[in-house]
Design a protein that fits this description.
The complex is a heterodimer.
Chain A (H helix, E strand, L loop, with lengths): L2 E5 L3 E2 L5 E8 L8 E6 L5 E7 L6 E3 L7 E6 L4 E6 L8 E8 L8 E4 L3 E5 L2
Parallel strand pairs in A: 2-11
Antiparallel strand pairs in A: 1-3, 3-8, 4-5, 4-9, 5-6, 7-8, 9-10, 9-11
Chain B lengths: L3 E4 L2 E4 L5 E7 L7 E6 L6 E5 L3 E2 L7 E6 L2 E6 L9 E6 L6 E2 L3 E5 L1
Classes of the chains: A mainly beta, B mainly beta.
Chain lengths: 121, 107
């Protein structure tokens, strides 16, 4: 069965940096496009970033563009998110999510349990 | 970016009731819309994709409809396990966006 396990979230000071990881298992990771989604306190789900299978197409939400960088290592079955210039508004739970394999559909069919990020001094 | 607006923000309903949540897109997204269920402390779960296709293992009491800019999620007979927050998400563009969520509470 497909599994996604996030890690790397912790307490960081404003202005700081962090790298989140998502390890995939139970499916052919290199064949799937991937996303990061976060849930911030008191708010709902917010889509953060997308990456295609060979990393030559990436997109970002306006709220994180220029500060966050998505990447992947297909040999390690891993997805990453580098977070820079963090602010209080970036606190929340960060999920990695897999897109459906069907080329006509990009819904998020598998999600990890999330890793918490707290930005505070 | 495409904006997604859900209504209502909160919905109080009883077990057995029919429940409808609406999602509006700021421009046409064809049928590239998904619905998710999210419970505290758990991973979100895909319910509906391509606006009206039921996800794997999702009970048939859930259904989705719509295209273009107007979409609905319907729960035909609310069950105790359905009390959660529901989100729509568009994926018509590479910049995906979620609605703000609809919390379904026990009346």
């Amino acid at each position: 069965e497909a599994q996604l396990v996030e890690s790397g979230g912790h307490l960081v000071q404003p202005g700081g940096s962090l790298r989140l990881s998502c390890e995939a298992s139970g499916f052919t990771f290199r064949s799937y496009e991937m996303n990061w989604v976060r849930q911030t306190p008191g708010k709902g789900l917010e889509w953060i970033s997308y990456i295609n299978t060979n990393s030559d197409l990436k997109s970002y939400a306006a709220s994180v563009k220029g500060r966050f960088t998505i990447s992947r290592d297909n040999a390690k079955n891993s997805l990453y998110l580098h977070l820079n210039s963090l602010t209080d508004d970036d606190s929340g739970i960060y999920y990695c999510a897999r897109e459906a394999l069907d080329s006509s559909d990009s819904s998020l069919d598998y999600w990890g349990q999330g890793t918490p990020v707290t930005v505070s001094s | 970016d495409i904006q997604m607006t859900q209504s209502p923000s909160t919905l109080s309903a009883s077990v057995g009731e029919r429940v409808t949540v609406t999602c509006r897109a700021s421009q046409s997204i064809r049928n590239f819309l998904a619905w998710y269920q999210h419970k505290p402390g758990k991973a979100p779960k895909l319910l509906i994709f391509k606006a009206s296709t039921l996800g794997s293992g999702v009970p048939s009491r859930f259904s989705g409809s719509g295209s273009g800019t107007e979409f609905t999620l319907t729960i035909s007979s609310l069950q105790p396990d359905d009390f959660a927050t529901y989100y729509c998400q568009q994926y018509n563009t590479y910049s995906r966006t979620f609605g703000q969520g609809t919390k379904v509470e026990i009346k």
